[in-house]
Amino acid sequence: MTPMKNVFRIAAVSLLGFGSAQAADTMVPGVARRLTVEQYTRVIADTFGPTVKIGGRFDPDVRVDGLIEVGAAQVSVSSTSLSQYDAMARSIAAQVVNEDNRLTMLPCKPASATAPDDACAGKFLAKVGGSLFRRPLTPAEIEHQVRTAANATETVKDFYQGLSLTLASMLTAPEFLFRVESVEADPANRGGYRLDSAGKATRLAFFLWNGAPDEELLRAAQKSELDTPKGLEKQVNRMMASGRLKDGIRAFFDDMLQLAGMDDVMKDGALFPKFSSQIAGEAREQTLRTIVGVVTAPKGDYRDIFTTKKTFLTPGLASIYKVPLAFDAPIGAPDYWKAYEFKAEDPRAGILVQTSFVTMNSHPGRSSPTLRGKALREVLLCQKVPAPPADVNFTIVQDTSNPVYRTARDRLIAHRTNPVCGGCHKLIDPMGLALENFDGGGAFRTTENGVKIDTSGEIDGVKFADAAGLGQAIHDNPAAASCLVQRLTAYGLGRTPKKDETWVETQKAAFIKNNYSVPGLMRSLALSPEFYRAVPNEIKAAFNTP
Amino acid sequence: MKPRTRTLAAGVRRGTMVVAGLVLASAATPAAAVESKSYVLAYFGQAVSSKEGDCPGGLNATLEAQYAKNLQALGYKGAEVEELMKSFGEEGQTWDKNKIGQVMNTRARVNGQAENAYAHPAAVADANLKHVTGTVAYGFNLDGKGAGDAGAFEDPQTHEKGIDNQMFRALGCVDPFRGTLATGTAFWLFMWMAEKDSMPAWLITVEGDDLSKDGPVTVRMSRAIEITKFNANGEARADMTYREDADPRTRANVFKGEIKSGTLSIASTAPLHMMQDQLTFPNFDLANFHMRLTPDNEGRLEGLIGGYQPIEQIYFALGQGGLAAENNYSPELPGMYHLMRKLADGPPDKDGKIWSISTAYHLKAVPAFVVTVAGAEAAANR
After folding, report:
1. Span A460-518, pLDDT tens digits
2. Same domain membership, residue B72 and residue B91
3. Where are the domains of chain A?
4. ipTM of this model?
5. B376 part of contact set with chain A, CB < 8 Å
6. Could you give the CA distance from residue A366 to residue A397 in angstroms, rounded to a whole number?
7. Which is nearest to A434 in space by CA: A401, A472, A393?
8. Which domain holds residue B166?
9. Of A455, A519, A511, which Cα lies nearest the Cα of A478?
10. Which of A6, A147, A303, B359 could make a disulfide contact with B167, Cβ separation 3.0–4.6 Å?
11. Statement to judge: residues B310 and B286 lie in one domain
């Protein structure tokens, strides 16, 4: 069974098995993506407010073709993780109806606290159900949930507890845990499928805002306005003008640059004492703020993220960068962010030399030109670097105190004499070595073991002298822009576009013509009919049709 | 381990320093410096160099033995002493049952009346505690007598003779005040741990024509608005930015100094006035301010400051905890006061009385940026 087929089966079976049989009768699932940890958290916060705490362990997100959003379309909910989702759901539901919150979170008060109140329960469940399932509940669904709440209330003799049990069941329903983008026959493409209105609304909202559709988008979907170019454009323009667009841009780049990896970065405290989990979080945020600042600026050019001197800093990050950053805040105030522009003579420019990239692509005790070069190729240029053979001897590379090979360049040259290793290292090392002025903790250095570091290199025939030159070379490399389009398209679709999907090439050309504008590309994708088309083979596979 | 040394300006970016120096110079010093480098305090404690046998006949008696002596000095007889001492060190006892504590707490006599011993240490009978008789101590030749200063110490680092450090001599036979520069002492480590996360950071800014070379410099000590930031491993974090406190009380500490063989030194006749932690030194004054700081290969400074410090300031740090503090770390707080008064060697007042004592403190500092509150980053210094 293919992964996609598996997903459709899971989604379909889940829909039938979790108390929403009425919905499953009328809905054809298209792409089902499991909510990422961030999306789960965001939907809960959007629905119940930020005070509701989420306790529990999520299944790890899976990255496929460089993106968690693609992986999310290929994962299911295991029995183990379902028990975790269940525990989280019960905890959330209990918080919503507890004595402190019920007055503000419930829209009504029951006639009796010990007996069913269908009117009050229905009002609450319809409201939160729409938010959790990212679509209005059908009358049959509301009736089903109200009946469930009433039964539970009669059993436990407590209206709030009964409501809590029903809410918990909704929080473990596949319509909540999965973003189900349902499909319908595509009138413009005979024999093909496209997302239906609800599916479009879900795709648009998560693509542009990384969140659930708002009431206006749901309304437009209900009125089938998203099925007309004019109606779709109206909603896309509205969403592009919203402040929430930055949430969508952040989510995409967080995924593309694999910044969640900062959560796992560990450093040797003796070698890199400034580094901490707090700094790791701030470094991730710095990169996202830098990118959002560049790409949302008027005439913002995506490629400038590799060369910009502008960024945002906290006091802790400023200490790593060894630049002054004073705040006008009282003693004890939490650290906060301040816009900062590196001076012309400062070696820092672009995201490649930010703490996030150089620490994440390093080892706990040393830098790694190889990891950095590999990340540059794979993450930013969408090129595949083969995995190293299983029997590679890394002794020389790891020996940072080797008296003969005193710099990383020296050690890698020695390592590359092994022809098995040489091929790949020639591809990645010249790029990674350009970043050797930045140690494993993100600090600038000019020497290693007392020897001046040589940061010269080349990429695809373009030579450079240092990290700034590397940034400029990536900026100018056509593969960088092409990769961005490829990743953003896959991010929106939940799958990597196939080579024969020529419309993606059209998007690339438009992206370049539009001054490499990321919001422009998002808009262009969101207005493209192909963006909502389901791939026929996968739909057939999902339903076991020949 | 002796810190590795390097020139003071190693790693400094000159372009930044030119701007920074000029801005600070215009604010505080008449001469226009062309290079400036700032540091934040990373450790503060008494500079000690205790050695086996430097206290005649061993250290001072335990508190229990001292209290028994004190009772006898107060006129208590054998059986009474025995009875009172029964309550000494009893775990979990309430104040009304702490008979020895009550007597010791009010053993001062002012006009024949019992008074708080810790608020009136001079009114407590001198316990005649022992003091250091060794010949080695960190510090400075404050009185200028040098090798001819009979009874003065020799510095174990510079081997300079005529070192004045009577504070070390006075306190050095009490166990919590003994240690080495590397280990520190229990008392001062405890105080540093308590104050480091609460006191506004101390800042040191050095300005000169070229800090990589020997030559004259200007050193400014001031106080920050912020508290020193520490790494997870407990060390002060380098390269953080601090705002200089505009409070005029700590903005006059500008001294002429020099860099020689990488070591920054000050030998001034002017006073230093800083404010520190409320429970240690709310005011910290050193007359004849001296400094000796050496950079290591990471650009961090370590060394000494010294001068004549008012005894009441030192006694406040020791005695503000009263009976509880005495029970924690001292055989006799008023006795330590008496010792410092007897060994005081600062400038006499008009009546010929001496109220200050020669001291030396151990400092560590890490590179930092210092900005004035107004002008912020434009006035950045390193």
Report:
1. 889 999 999 999 999 999 999 999 999 999 999 999 998 888 999 999 999 999 999 99
2. yes
3. 3-181, 252-476
4. 0.81
5. yes
6. 10
7. A472
8. 14-54+137-379
9. A511
10. B359
11. yes
